[in-house]
């Protein structure tokens, strides 16, 4: 089983984004496998979305609902999804998380509208070190 398979099978992963000054900001999120990447879903104007737009550097680690990791963090590159990709990610989350996923997504859509949340895709870059983009 690959790292991508293991993380995609987790109920929660700790998605860590990085502030301009390099400080890590970890957040537990639902995750689903999306082809060659992991996908998550979040509020469109959240801090993590702003940090991902600025710099796609992230790490992901298996965790519990409270964000306590129970495995090693793996570096990755995150990107914010367009509306069509976000719809696909919502469907994948509904399949994985069943009734709880459907209810959470419905509640979010009622509170925030269709555009109030976005999908996030994370391509793992095992071997890379967060904060080190290499030579320019």
TrEMBL record:
GO terms for cellular component: cytosol. Pfam families: PNPOx_N. Gene3D superfamilies: Electron Transport, Fmn-binding Protein, Chain A. It comes from the Bacteria. Residues 7-94 form the Pyridoxamine 5'-phosphate oxidase N-terminal domain. Keywords: Oxidoreductase. GO terms for molecular function: coenzyme F420 binding; oxidoreductase activity, acting on the CH-CH group of donors. The keyword Lipid biosynthesis does not apply. The keyword Oxidoreductase applies. InterPro entries: F420H2_bilvrd_red/Heme_oxyg, PPOX_F420-dep_Rv2061_put, Pyridox_Oxase_N, Split_barrel_FMN-bd. PANTHER family: HEME OXYGENASE HI_0854-RELATED (PTHR35176), PYRIDOXAMINE 5'-PHOSPHATE OXIDASE FAMILY PROTEIN (PTHR35176:SF11). This is PPOX class F420-dependent oxidoreductase.
């Amino acid at each position: 089983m690959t790292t991508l398979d293991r993380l995609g099978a987790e109920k929660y992963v700790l998605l860590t984004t990085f502030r301009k000054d390099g400080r890590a900001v970890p957040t537990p999120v639902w995750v689903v496998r999306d082809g060659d990447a992991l996908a998550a879903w979040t509020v469109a104007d959240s801090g993590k979305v702003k940090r991902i737009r600025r710099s796609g550097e992230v790490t992901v680690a298996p965790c519990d609902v409270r964000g306590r990791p129970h495995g090693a963090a793996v570096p990755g590159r995150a990107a914010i999804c367009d509306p069509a990709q976000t719809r696909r990610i919502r469907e994948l989350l509904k399949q994985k998380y069943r009734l709880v996923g459907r209810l959470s997504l419905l509640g979010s859509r009622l509170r925030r509208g269709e555009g109030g949340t976005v999908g996030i895709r994370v391509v793992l870059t095992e071997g890379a070190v967060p904060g080190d983009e290499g030579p320019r």
